[in-house]
Amino acid sequence: MKPPQFWYGEPASLMDHLTAFASRALSPIYAAMGARRIAKAQPAFAEPAVICVGNLTLGGTGKTPVTIAILKEALSRDINAQALSRGYGGKLAGPVCVDTTRHFARDVGDEPLLIASAAPVWVSRDRVGGAHAAQLHEADLIIMDDGHQNPDLHKDVSVVVIDAAAGWGNGRVFPAGPLREPVDRGLQRADAVVLMVPEPDFEPDYAGLGLADIQIPVLRAWLKPTAPAPDGPVVAFAGIGRPEKFFNALTAAGARLAETYSFPDHHEFTRAELDQLRQEAARHSASLVTTEKDFVRIPATGRDGVLAWPVRAVFAEPARLTALVQQALDAAAERR
């Protein structure tokens, strides 16, 4: 879905005003349903340690790059780390281990395909079933991509990823705002926070984010390109939670943006849309660039002329990431 204007700014039209006003009556119901589900749940335990990488808002905060960074940290220590995902946007219910040679985004979702470049990924709508599948394949550590609001599987460490620049938007719970649950309630269940900043020198509003007096670790991280921006003019397109983050990152890397095109998160690109984007790039004599997450959703036959611009999560204090992995392993050892 594409976030409504009023989630992160003032309503842009009379219809936006009316929608914002009407949706406020539904927010308490949504929040109460989520709280009730969590309160009544009896989480199942898996033998491996479980780290959940989630967030409190709808839309992109950087969960997937953080998940990949944790996986790589664990693997560098010879820990058998595997990922677990619901596989949003895919048709397979699982549990199924992602195979990049035969699975497509329509099968398992876009995020699992990205994560599979780093480690084995289990897609399962039943998180408990997926965790048991990883356990049968000798996982020591499971990194669950998303699921902070899912109470079915016990988490040894629950990490909340926050976009430091976007914050909580208008501070309201869905559908009146971008929050999945009230901030204080979500942070109470967190064991650590990863604060994604747009650049290393960015100074977050800790008080405004509710982090001024928080008693859990707060790790700072940012996304760093692993390839230079294309030379010459660029036509950029993205169907992620906040496409403007991608466009701003390209500009910061020195790209000259001729045009930008935003699509809803997890958008499935049609042949006509891709042809039109290629025509726009040709009109500007520009490179056609998108995110890795968008690229994996494009059919192989439609990728001609499209460049994927790769990024990775970089942590200000890598030792704290190591400590997070160890915290989960220690917690799992204590409960066994």
TrEMBL record:
Residue runs in coiled coils: 267-294
Binding site for ATP: 57-64
Pathway stated in the Swiss-Prot or TrEMBL entry: Glycolipid biosynthesis; lipid IV(A) biosynthesis; lipid IV(A) from (3R)-3-hydroxytetradecanoyl-[acyl-carrier-protein] and UDP-N-acetyl-alpha-D-glucosamine: step 6/6
Keywords: ATP-binding, Coiled coil, Kinase, Lipid A biosynthesis, Lipid biosynthesis, Lipid metabolism, Nucleotide-binding, Transferase
Entry keyword annotation includes Coiled coil: yes
UniProt GO MF annotations: lipid-A 4'-kinase activity
Keyword ATP-binding in record: yes
Enzyme Commission number(s) of this protein: 2.7.1.130
Enzymatic reactions: a lipid A disaccharide + ATP = a lipid IVA + ADP + H(+)
Pfam families cross-referenced by the UniProt entry: LpxK
Transmembrane residue ranges: none
Homology family: Belongs to the LpxK family.
NCBIfam families: lpxK
Described purpose of this protein according to its UniProt entry: Transfers the gamma-phosphate of ATP to the 4'-position of a tetraacyldisaccharide 1-phosphate intermediate (termed DS-1-P) to form tetraacyldisaccharide 1,4'-bis-phosphate (lipid IVA).
Name of protein: Tetraacyldisaccharide 4'-kinase
Organism (species): Hyphobacterium lacteum
